[in-house]
Structure prediction request, 253 residues.
Amino acid sequence: MSISGLLLSGSMAVAAGVVGCFAVMRRMTLAADAMSHIALPGLGLALVLHLNPVVGGIAMLLLGALLIWGLEQRTGISTETVVGVVFSTALAVGSMLASGEELLDALLGKPGVLSPMELVFGLLAPLGVVLFLIRARNRLLITLVSPDLARTVGIRVERLNLGFLLAFAVTVALGLRYLGVLLMGSLIIIPAATAKHLARNVRSMFLVSVGVSVGATVLGSTLAGLLHRPTGPLIIAVAAACFFVSLAWRRPA
Prediction:
């Protein structure tokens, strides 16, 4: 992987580490993995129209986040359930639009040559996601404890939830090139899950999660280049290894 590719994948990993902490604390681990699949129809449609697949993936993820938020607000159904329904639909439609090698690349990722649009998006989007979550951190934590309490102190819970879903969607979009729709959710979940049982407070949870995410991305990408293997599976394999090894140092309950 080129230096620019390594820099962008590292930036993506930082965003994934931060978003993952909130996803784990919100008990969205399974929903987080499913949500990444929502990009598949966009990728397939972009391939049919001979467009950059990442553009289609980004558009579908943002649309999916808005759809999930809207359905959750109107029906009162949990986020996890709504994500599951939208995910299943997206997976079916996406599988019909893409096939063969193109589908494999969409599922597992393929670094390739980065376009100018991807370079700009890959640099600015992680910064925007991290800044938003840092700024909204206290409000998100209060909402996690008690949505009613959050409303009492003037927090617009629905708007905050929409912001988080959009930040999540953007983070997934950042990893489509490197990990594909099957594996990006894993990079959001595994480092945060590792950090949850190692960290003693919220701040250290963020630091550990980002460290594992970035370390797995850099090491996995390096190994992929040396072994001439797909990048995504090796990144997740390294992250998973960190999780299992960390069990030996798990802090007492």
